[in-house]
Amino acid sequence: MPTDDYTIKHLHKDLTDSLPAYMRPYLLRVLRDNEEIPYTASQKPIKAEMLKRFFGVSDFWNAEKLAPGVQIWCENFPLGGRFDRIIAKPWDWATWQTSG
Questions:
Q1: Using CA atoms, how far apart are residues 29 and 54, in angstroms rounded to an integer?
Q2: Per residue in 22-48, pLDDT tens?
Q3: Cα–Cα distance between 100 and 97 in angstroms, integer?
Q4: Is 29 buried (19+), middle (13-18) or exposed (0-12) by CB count in 10 A?
Q5: pTM > 0.85: yes or no
Q6: Distance (Å, whole) CA 5 – CA 61
Q7: Inter-residue long-range contacts of 88-96, CB under 8 Å, 24+ positions, other chains counted
Q8: What are the residue ranges spanned by the domains of the chain?
């Protein structure tokens, strides 16, 4: 499948029957051919470096400043499908951490 065909919408459609909504990804960034995941000497992925390099995240997620190529799943957000307020962490989008 060509890289352009990988979409968050397609991924959610494929996973709907096998995973509940809270377990499905809400962000997708498909790596290009020349991009590689950074690893430690013991071959563990370096999460902080991946977030910075591929998602443009250093401290907090900013939904209004997306890194190039990042796709967001927002069809069933409790926010009515749009960002009414800035939410610091992606897991807040599924209302796991929000209160009122």
A1: 7
A2: 888 888 899 988 999 999 999 999 999
A3: 10
A4: buried
A5: no
A6: 25
A7: 88/60, 88/61, 89/60, 89/61, 90/26, 90/27, 90/61, 93/26, 94/21, 94/22, 94/26, 96/22
A8: 3-94
